[in-house]
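2024-03-11 09:14:02 INFO receiving multi-entity request
2024-03-11 09:14:02 INFO entity count = two
2024-03-11 09:14:03 INFO echoing inputs for audit
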Amino acid sequence: MTDRVEKLRDLDVFIYHGKVDIPDTYSAGTVGSRFLIEIRDNKRIMGTRCPACKRVYVPARSVCKDCFGRMDEWVEVGDKGTLLTYTVVHVPTSVQLKEPPVAYGIVQLDGADTGLVHLLGEVDPDQLQVGMKMQAVFAEERVGSILDIKYFKPAA
Amino acid sequence: MAQRVGIVAVAQTKYHPNRADANEGELAYEAIRQVLQETGLGFSDDGDGISSAVTCSQDFWDGRTISNLNVMSYVGAHLSHEDKVAEDGVNAVYTAMAQVLSGKHDIVLTVAHMKESQGDKSIIENAAFDPIFLRVLGLDFLTAAALQAQRYMHRYGITAEQCAKVAVKNRGNAKRNPYAQEPMDITVEDVLKSKMLASPIRQLDAKPVSDGACAMILASEEKAKKLTAKPVWILGVSNCYETHYLGDRDLADCNALVKAARKAYGMAGVSDPLKELDLAEVSEEYSYQELLWMEGLGLCGRGEGGKLIDSGVTQMGGQLPVNPSGGMLAGNPNGVAGMARVAECVLQLRNEAGDRQVPGARLALAHGVTGICGQLQAVMILGTS
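2024-03-11 09:21:47 INFO inference complete, emitting structure
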């Protein structure tokens, strides 16, 4: 796995350059998969409702973190919602999906009690404000990923 | 607690942006050697030596799936006992304390080590997110912290100037700490003019990349009194988790810290922390966090972190100096920061903190944090009696 060795100029020390490259698979589980399939097939964003505290979780999941009961009731939430917070990343990183500036936000969709973390697009970063209405933009080609929602843009 | 557990010796390396000259074990040994020399202790199972080691490190940061691999022979773990805590350093001290309280070990060494310089920060942090709903978005801890900072500042009207004051205070305090990496004479304007990383967080609002290690020795009450004339007692400790998914909580809150603090105060018999504590060392990777953590620790009301820094209460010479050492903003690796906070409290309580000494300190709070937006919070109360 070591692919390069560097001799530091001013130190009598060798620096080994390595890379851990391990292919992984992750199950989204039954509930997480249905959430992704609804977006892929129907452009519908679904949550699950806790029978005890009545909160609607998006992304959908199977257990309420507070009540610890199973959540079997599926609820469709809107593709529009409120921006709870945002950031514009100005520095390049190794994991960004595009060149900076990259905008991220947390959007509480209408009918949901939690926020959805996602990219923001089609917006001048200076126009972003907590509380503004946002709308999901779906990808043309959808594959069962959270990126089947391309990003959220300011609602018309 | 059935009996008290004392910290009998602490040591830190000087924190540095890139210790290319040392591997993880050698770096850890710099701190370990000091506590061994100070106490005269060796490794043995006969009750008179160190019989267990608790190391603290994180696999991804050290670029291998066994981050303590290079450290084993430096902590006396050859043909002996070692446990690794892969979270914050306060939790490593907590684990070492639990080993003493179990009755199985009388004297335990704990060491936290990390070389942040060896990894790509954003790739490592990105891998810490849920792979399906968060990792694919290209998030890292800076991005997540920026979402928290924006939410917190919006909800309570905290200003960029108030956050900048934390950076000015802590990097200024660091001038009196010989272990600090980035002592600086800066102004609020300098912070506000520094490069924007992820709005609202600027370069000087963030901690630098850092390498370093911290070690300490814990002992049962009986042994601690024999090993040093100035034992420092762990009077209270607790930790608490938040849920992982960032949209599940209001990021302007830090309920895990509220709960961890309440339990640690209860255990230590602290009812009015602002009045009773002599100092606090908190882990602030970003400037806004010190303000938010003050609220979580009950040192001011909710939303009053900004007012608290304005009041001067947390400055050196104030009612409750916070981060006399300079904190994380002055440079600590993530996995070492919490233990460094405990070590700094111990130095203060032993009246050995040099130019950064808080006069007459008898009760101190150390805080550690790991994960995204303060997901795992740990609080430890330390005292001289």
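2024-03-11 09:21:48 INFO post-check: Residues 254 and 287 of chain B are 15 Å apart (CA to CA).
2024-03-11 09:21:48 INFO post-check: The domain at 5-119+209-227 of chain B is CATH 3.40.47.10 (Peroxisomal Thiolase; Chain A, domain 1).
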